[in-house]
Glycine betaine/proline transport system substrate-binding protein (Yoonia sediminilitoris), 306 residues
Amino acid sequence: MNVTLKTGIATIAIVTGMAAPAHADAIKIAVNEWTGQNLSAYIAGAVLQEMGQEVEYVTAGAVPQFAAIADGSLHFQPETWTNNVGEIYPKAVDAGDITVVGELGLRPLEGWFYPPYMEEQCPGLPSYEALYDCAQAFAAADTFPNGRLITYPADWGTRSNDQVAALGLPFQPVAGGSEGAMLAEMKSAIATEQPMLMMFWQPHWIHAEIALNVVEWDSSSPDCLAGVDQSRGNACGFAQASVQKIVSKDFADTWPEAYAFVESYELSNDVQNALIQRVDQDGLSVEEAVAEWMRDNEATWRGWTS
């Protein structure tokens, strides 16, 4: 997946405090750094346009976007992963400045993924306990003797770094430059059976192409994850997100028909994975993939507008 969008329609602006060219009545939809979210955003926008609404797409960082939605300069984010939202999001929701409309329908899994051949080099995997004894099997020249852990891009949050620090794991987190860079490194490592441990997620088309296993923790129960300080022997791993649709606080009053659509809008892992593959593997632009899906699934999207 390349996070440089192949887009040719819509007004694009970076949420950095700069004024974006805008129409007062346009619904501004947040566009983030990964293809799946781009597809969620552009499908929503295409349906809204079919309903007669004016739409603008605004590029926005996964965490900075929430301040813009809370102050009304952005209006709609169809794919909010709740375990990567920073501090602003829950406060804005509690204050009523952001409205959670419901879940999109995706069922995610996030964690530390590795290729199956690493289990020969690191006996004890998939348990995280094995990582204490075989960090050097994951080492690179710039991290030795510590293992190398590829994490999300820096502006996606620090959860992997926090996990390494909390558990005292002998690993050095290295931020991926982008989703596309992470995938390129993943494929390169696996092609030559080099060591690789990477924070990644599902749904994603890569899991249909490459076999990946995921590190297992002591517990993933809500009780363990609910504010418990993690330590060796009590490692909860990562809270698994729900994927929420959110809007600005005045959205329902300003665009009641659009709000009703947002309530009905849903996507499954299977639908999104197939669309991601059309973009990232087959070379379609996001708009082309969305137009194809809209053409082939009219009964589905019209059902969201009735």
